[in-house]
Amino acid sequence: MSAARKWISSVFAVLLFAALAPAAYAACPGPCIRDAEIEAILREYSDPIFEAAGLRASDVDIYLINDGSLNAFVGGGQNVHIHTGLIIAAETPEQLKGVIAHETCHMACGHLQTRTEAMGAAGNMSMMSIGLGVLAMAAGAPDAGMALIGSSSQFGYLTFAKHTRSEEAAADQKAVSYLEATGQSADGLIEFFEKYRYQELMSDGRRYPYFRTHPLSSDRIGALRSRVAQARSTAEPQSERTLDQMARMKAKLIGFLEPANKVYREYPTTDLSIPARYARSISAYRVPDIGTALREIDGLIELEPENPYFHELRGQILFESGQIEESIGPHRRSVELAPDQPLLKVNLARSLTQDGAEEQLDEAVGLLIDAIAQDKENAFAWNQLALAYGKQNRVGDADLATAEEAYAIGDVRRAHVFASRASRKLDPNTPNGRRASDIAAITDPRANGRRG
Questions:
Q1: For 238-268, what is each residue's pLDDT tens digit?
Q2: 2: helix, coil or strand?
Q3: What is the DSSP string of 52-81?
Q4: CB neighbour list of residue 348: distance below 8 Å, 6 or more residues apart
Q5: Does some domain include residue 154?
Q6: How many beta carbons lie within 10 A of that of residue 431, not counting itself?
Q7: Which of 220-234, 329-343, 417-431 shows the lowest per-residue confidence on average (mean pLDDT)?
Q8: Higher pLDDT residue, 201 or 363?
Q9: Distance (Å, whole) CA 323 – CA 311
């Protein structure tokens, strides 16, 4: 392949990726993790900001991505994606809330649409440069032509970057307004940017993902600082509860995601705070050192007997160490203390299903149906419902639940296979029978062509 054709292929590859990226974000573009406590804290932090931006908080989904890199972004409509690495790196609730407020503007200010248009403009600029290069080569100036073709991607990037910089500055200003409206300071956003200001001097490939898509500049930080100074008089300090939530959220993530030596380095046994004991209990359970894990969590339950997430962790430790019957009590208590948390209902249902008594299966099915009504895209809940129905010999319903699980994760072929099975076994005049027929129809490869 000639040098010119290589450059043209390279530019087309970049533009194709940029065009397809928003579609990949339709659900969760990465290894998402679920945790009732962390999700509840993130909602408590974020919902007032969403409302201040004129969004309906219930329409915005928050996805927690298991990725140690520092990043947060919006995509696929009103979806906020937060890397675990960002939460761990944030030193205060203000820093995390500042980033969330900034990302909120990208949704509320229509930046997803304008960025799509900017990508198109950048592509046009790149293609124009390639066209001029080809003409120059045809006119007998191969060096000039190659220079134009070689710089085509840079011209496209500069066109897009100019647009991005203006949007980032606008999002900073709006973030301050949202935080001001909720009685909070945007100092955390400045602290966050100042902490990673050195990223401005690094090559694009070495920057954290966040700062590749959110380029910093001294002018931008200066403008933000001026705006925050005007708003600071209305801000209230973060409450002790908010500070404690942040500490527990970070401890939980570190306990689950980091190796034991790092956990104990971060939270040595001399640290008797609740977050430290929480992290050590989780880390011990993962090793596994079940005795230590239970001692730590039992001590925390003694301190906070009404904390549903401590009971949840105790039930998880027991369940995954093979003590199925013993895990039911803690999981039941967690649901009693937080009856609106669908993930806790799924945990209890899983223990009940594995234990397997007939009356427990009935309770498990009821819990799972309730959980799914609150969290319809929870593929694991559908999986557990299929298991419970299977143990009750409700084969058609089990096939439908498996189809729903596959549909939730985008496995269209599997969804069609199991929905078709279910529709042959279920009464077509019942809600489940009609739902099976609907899924079978919309996932039919004959109707959807290659998408099937």
A1: 999 999 999 999 999 999 999 999 999 999 9
A2: coil
A3: HTT--GGG-EEEEE---S--EEE-SSSEEE
A4: 315, 328, 331, 332, 334, 335, 364, 367
A5: yes
A6: 9
A7: 220-234
A8: 363
A9: 15
Phi and psi at residue 392, to the nearest 5°: -90, 5
Of 16-25, 161-170, 205-214, 390-399, the range with the lowest mean pLDDT is 16-25
What value does the mean pLDDT take over residues 109-134? 50
Contact 366, 352 (CB under 8 A): no
Which two structure tokens, joined as six digits, stand for 247?
Answer: 């500490």
Q: What is the mean pLDDT of the chain?
A: 81
Cα separation, 344 vs 34, whole angstroms:
11
Per-residue pLDDT at 201 exceeds 90: no
The token pair that represents 169 in the structure block:
């500055």
Q: What is the arithmetic mean of pLDDT over 413-435?
A: 95
Residue 415 to residue 421: CA distance in whole angstroms: 10
Residue 16 CB-density burial (10 A; 0-12 exposed, 13-18 middle, 19+ buried): exposed
Q: Which two tokens stand for residue 132?
A: 């001029």
Q: How many domains does the chain have?
A: 1
Number of C-beta neighbours around residue 412 at 10 A: 18
DSSP for 424-446, written as a single string? HHS-TTSHHHHHHHHHHHHT-HH
Among residues 227, 158, 160, which one has the least CA distance to residue 190?
227
Strand order in the sheet with 61-65: 32-33, 61-65, 79-83, 72-74
Q: What is the dihedral of CA 295, 297, 303, 305, to 10 degrees?
A: -120
- How many angstroms separate the CA atoms of 290 and 104, rounded? 41
Q: How many residues does the chain have?
A: 452
- 371 occurs within a structural domain: no
Residue with tokens 């990208």: 106
Torsions phi, psi for 264 (to 5 deg): -75, -20
For residue 245, tell me if it sits in a domain.
Answer: no
Amino acid identity of residue 397, one-letter, is D
Q: Looking at residue 109, what is its pLDDT?
A: 87
Q: What is the pLDDT of residues 376-414, one digit of tens each?
A: 889 999 999 999 999 999 999 999 999 999 999 889 999
Q: Is 342 part of any domain?
A: no
Of the candidates 438, 409, 442, 408, the one whose C-alpha atom is nearest the C-alpha of residue 422 is 438
Range of the domain at 153: 3-234
Cα Rg, the chain, nearest whole Å: 26
Quick one: pLDDT band at residue 448, thresholds 50, 70, 90? low
Give the 3-state secondary structure percentages of the chain, helix then strand then coil, rounded to 5: 75, 5, 20
In the structure encoding, which two tokens stand for residue 246, read together? 């942040």
